UniProtKB/TrEMBL annotation, chain B:
It is a multi-pass membrane protein. Keywords: Membrane, Transmembrane, Transmembrane helix. Belongs to the CPA3 antiporters (TC 2.A.63) subunit A family. Residues 181-458 form the NADH:quinone oxidoreductase/Mrp antiporter transmembrane domain. The chain crosses the membrane at residues 6-22, 29-50, 65-86, 93-111, 123-149, 161-179, 185-205, 217-240, 246-264, 276-304, 316-336, 343-362, 368-392, 413-433, 445-470, 491-511, 531-556, 611-629. The lineage of its organism: Bacteria, Bacillati, Bacillota, Clostridia, Eubacteriales. It is found in: Endomembrane system; Membrane. This is NADH-quinone oxidoreductase subunit L. It comes from Anaeromassilibacillus senegalensis. InterPro entries: CPA3_Na-H_Antiporter_A, ND/Mrp_TM, Proton_antipo_N. Pfam families: Proton_antipo_M, Proton_antipo_N. Residues 118-149 form the NADH-Ubiquinone oxidoreductase (complex I) chain 5 N-terminal domain.
């Protein structure tokens, strides 16, 4: 019963949570840059405007693929919030991302295709850590099931601090934050135009944004997984940790410039080995 | 079970008849009949075995005259190799071939064995028979249409289709013999037959490249065969038995290690991968056969048979290390390939690496994953090869770059290819689920390196498949017209494959409980649920969602009213999304390519270090194993 409620809450509230975080992000970013920034609810205004626009498309399949992206992200998130298998959830997350890549390259547009290629590279960069992460949870708690992981006597972060560090590193990719915003960025007018989303407009772009909000919530849900345990106070702790982590991502976004793909791939893989790999080795040895 | 000799004899008969028929039409019908017959016979065997209680059954204790026949066969093969080696001036091969044949015959006369069964049917060999009969049979059917188109395209090669079909059927016969053999000497005979036939198939076009590649395949497989022959001699001399099961039960170190070496060569693991990569010079049906239903599967079949003796031993460590390393190295090199068949070849090597790694660990869970990987890989890979072959016949190229916008040009073939690719790596198709089980099993086995290999290898695997898939679905119109020259029999085969991929995923829970669990039970004497039923059902539901989400979205988006606009191209779009106005004011054709990261992941950069590293591991560990045992 709890699971059903949790999934329904996720499906209903995740876009709102994501949009609110986005509004928060925009204000903080603006303040860091010495600007005032938009109103807190700007993401909602943006969405409603995008939905009110005429539906224009470059081909017939783009909308279909973007909707599939949205649905798979929602399903992946539901698996996490239903307390199901974390590894399966992460696999589905990559399947969802694959639909995004297909949507972008279905246009056969130069800038969108470039964004799609870069997105694939980003997937290759972050995927090893996500797999190791699931394995880390399994070693630390003895189960792949989220519901077991959050009912441990102690937070799993105590066993896997390295994984948390590595995960923070790759979350910058998933949140499309600088220095890893290679495939598309929150800011247009760049060498790649708008990358992946170049050919998306109006309602299609709105759907893409909603999907991103689901993704933010999902990523922060995984961060919370590090902190949750059977005690009630772990929940507020996890929320604070998520917010703090999100703040760190914003800070990093603002103090760094975009890197080249080679740096992205190398740094992600090296960090994965150093944080996740090392932590995993230690967990395996003490088991 | 009088059907066993018929099952092996029928393809032999077809192989003997086919080259005699000069008329293409009639030959086609004979091939259909042959392939159909193989499938019917295999199904009949399955039916009889099931009605007999699906137990392991042993046959043929007294086989004196068959043994002599096999010796004659071996001598013939050796003679053939010697003749061809002299003809093409590849003399070192002669040493390998003559050496092992002499050793084999010497062993047979020097150590007469107690009568024991020579053939055995159990769940694993039954599964292998089914794979060989149905996938192999469909490939033969596909080949009829393919070879016709192939020789229309390639006038420069002599049409030796009759010989080609003959070899395909001979291969099936050898494969049946191999998987049903319990006696190592018999298995060795069929093992050598498959090596020689693959050699002949690879050299089909008789170009210089084909001849060189075929000899490379031959010598590498003969190295493995030599290991096999020594293993038999050692087993006969020290254990007094040449029964595979007895060798596995005693866990004798040297024979098991050498048999594992043979398995590694045949399943094209590093450092022996280059023979399979070179095998793609042959017409596509033979690649499909080598990669999916027969040759390489014989290697992993032997390793799975050996797996109880590999568990927790140094040999097992060697096998799993080589397998895991091959998995990641081959998947990295696949990124830099733009030739469709080459990507498939690397992907085969890589996936086999995973199966081999599972076999090397030799725990129940890993074998469970290995068997499932093998099933899914066979079907998907055979289908992919057939699709690439058909595309090549239609476009005149198998370059992935030329498949840009294929969905608009050859939609049917694109869907088939897409299903095959999705089956190879996407959640929740079978390959991925098996990978998931493998990951869990590696963690449970405490094997740090394999987990790392798997994590990074999955990422690179994802990259090269996604790249290919996006190329296919791109809505790009080109001026070049493509005419689909695929024959009906080719589509027949591919549609059945596509149906199988989807059905196997839907029936995953059934497959796991009725096909895989009995195999584990026979190999390990015990079997418990690797994945609980609830997880299996979740997966089936997920699969349905993967099929239905895009389908429903398709219907939803059909209703949505859309205004179509041209894409943004930097310069002004000429209106057809293919040409834009360049800075001279002239129309410029848009050309988009995939990303191959050649400098980072190219074969030139990675192949040599991987071969050196893996040879090092193999040689050092073999020395340690054999030195430790002597």
């Amino acid at each position: 019963m709890m699971r059903v409620v949790s999934v329904i809450l996720y499906l209903l509230l995740a876009p709102f949570a994501g949009a609110l975080l986005d509004g928060f992000d925009r204000i903080i970013t603006a303040r860091m840059q010495g600007r005032k920034g938009p109103p807190f609810f700007q993401p909602f205004y943006d969405l409603s405007k995008l939905f009110s626009k005429q539906m224009i498309a470059v081909n017939g399949v783009q909308l279909l693929l973007i909707l599939s992206y949205l649905v798979f992200l929602a399903v992946a998130g539901s698996m996490l919030f239903a307390g199901a298998d974390i590894l399966m959830c992460l696999f589905l997350l990559s399947t969802a991302d694959m639909f995004l890549v297909m949507a972008a390259s279905s246009d056969s547009s130069p800038f969108a295709t470039m964004g799609a290629s870069r997105e694939m590279l980003q997937m290759m960069a972050y995927e090893p850590l996500t797999l190791l992460l699931a394995v880390g949870f399994y070693l630390a708690t003895g189960s792949f099931q989220v519901v077991d992981i959050i009912h441990m006597p102690l937070s799993s972060v105590l066993m896997m601090p390295g994984f948390l560090l590595g995960f923070m590193f790759i979350t910058a990719i998933k949140l499309r934050k600088s220095p890893f915003d290679l495939s598309t960025s929150h800011h247009a007018h760049q060498e790649m135009v708008k990358g992946l989303t170049t050919e998306m407009a109006g309602p299609i772009l709105a759907i893409m944004n909603i999907a991103e909000y689901y993704e933010i919530t999902l990523m922060l849900g995984i961060v919370a997984l590090f902190f949750l345990n059977q005690n009630w106070w772990s929940w507020p702790l996890a929320i604070v940790a998520c917010l703090f982590m999100y703040f760190l991502e914003i800070l990093w976004d603002n103090v760094s410039a975009r890197v080249k793909w080679r740096t992205l791939l190398d740094s992600c893989w090296v960090v994965t080995l150093l944080t996740g790999g090392l932590n995993f080795l230690i967990l395996m040895l003490i088991k | 079970m009088g059907i066993l000799p018929i099952l092996i004899g029928w393809p032999l008969l077809i192989a003997a008849i086919v080259p005699l028929i000069k008329q293409e039409r009639i030959r086609g019908y004979v091939v259909y009949a042959g392939a159909g017959g193989v499938m019917v016979l295999a199904a009949a065997l399955l039916g009889m075995w099931l009605t007999n209680g699906a137990q392991a059954m042993a046959f043929y204790q007294e086989t004196e005259w068959v043994n002599y026949l096999m010796i004659a066969g071996e001598l013939f093969l050796t003679g053939l190799i010697v003749y061809l080696s002299i003809k093409y001036r590849k003399y070192p091969v002669i040493l390998l071939s003559v050496g092992q044949t002499a050793l084999g015959i010497w062993t047979e006369f020097r150590f007469p064995m107690q009568p024991a069964c020579h053939m055995q049917i159990d769940s694993l060999s039954m599964l292998m028979c089914m794979i060989a009969a149905f996938i192999g049979g469909l490939i033969c059917i596909y080949a009829v249409g393919y070879m016709k188109a192939y020789h229309q395209h390639h006038k420069e090669f002599q049409d030796r289709s009759g010989f080609f079909f003959s070899m395909l059927f001979l291969f099936l016969a050898a494969m049946f013999g191999l998987v049903l053999s319990e006696n190592l000497i018999w298995m060795y005979f069929f093992w050598e037959v498959t090596s020689v036939i693959s050699f002949l198939l690879i050299g089909y076009t008789r170009t210089e490249e084909a001849v060189n590649n075929s000899f490379r395949a031959l010598w590498m497989n003969l190295v493995g065969g030599f290991g096999f022959a020594i293993a038999i001699a050692v087993a006969a001399a020290t254990l007094g038995t040449v029964q595979l099961e007895a060798v596995v039960q005693t866990g004798a170190v040297i024979p098991v290690a050498l048999l594992a070496l043979a398995g590694l060569t045949k399943s094209a693991q590093l450092p022996f991968s280059s023979w399979l990569l070179g095998a793609m010079v042959a017409p596509t049906p033979s690649s499909a056969l080598l990669h999916s239903a027969t040759m390489v599967k014989a290697g992993v079949f032997l390793l799975i048979r050996l797996s109880p003796a590999l568990a927790g031993t140094m040999t097992g460590q060697m096998v799993s290390l080589i397998g895991g390393f091959t998995f990641i190295a081959a998947s990295m090199m696949a990124i830099a390939q733009n030739d469709g068949k080459k990507v498939l070849a690397f992907s085969t090597v890589s996936n086999l690496g995973l199966i081999v790694a599972c076999a090397g660990i030799g725990a129940e869970e890993t074998i469970w994953a290995a068997v499932l990987l093998m099933i899914f890989h066979s079907v998907s890979k055979s289908m992919l090869f057939q699709a690439v072959g058909s595309v090549e016949n239609s476009l005149g190229s198998r370059d992935i770059e030329n498949m840009h916008g294929l969905i608009l040009r050859l939609p049917k073939l694109t869907y088939i290819m897409g299903i095959g690719i999705a089956g190879m790596y996407l959640a929740p198709f079978g390959m991925l689920i098996s990978k998931w089980v493998a990951l869990k099993a590696f963690v449970d086995a405490g094997n740090f390196l394999l987990v790392i290999f798997l994590a990074f290898g999955s990422a690179t695997t994802m990259f090269y498949w996604t790249k290919w898939l996006t190329k296919l679905v791109s809505m790009h119109r080109t001026k070049e017209e493509a005419r689909d020259v695929t024959h009906r029999d080719q589509y027949f085969s591919m549609f059945i494959h596509a149906g199988c991929v989807l059905l196997l995923c839907l029936l995953f829970p059934w497959l796991a409980t009725t096909v895989v669990n009995p195999i584990i039970l026979e190999l390990f004497g015990a079997s418990h649920e690797v994945l609980s039923m609830s997880i299996l059902t979740t997966m089936a539901i997920m699969l349905v969602s993967v099929l239905f989400v895009p389908a429903t979205m398709f219907l939803v988006t059909r209703w949505a009213h859309k205004e179509y606009v041209p894409i943004y191209m930097g310069g002004a779009n000429e209106g057809d999304n293919t040409y834009f106005v360049n800075s001279y004011g002239e129309p410029e054709h848009l050309y988009l390519t995939n990303w191959y990261l050649r400098f980072e992941f190219g074969m030139r950069r990675l192949m040599r270090p991987s071969v050196i590293l893996s040879s090092g591991i193999l040689i050092v560990m073999l020395c340690l194993i054999i030195g430790g045992a002597v």
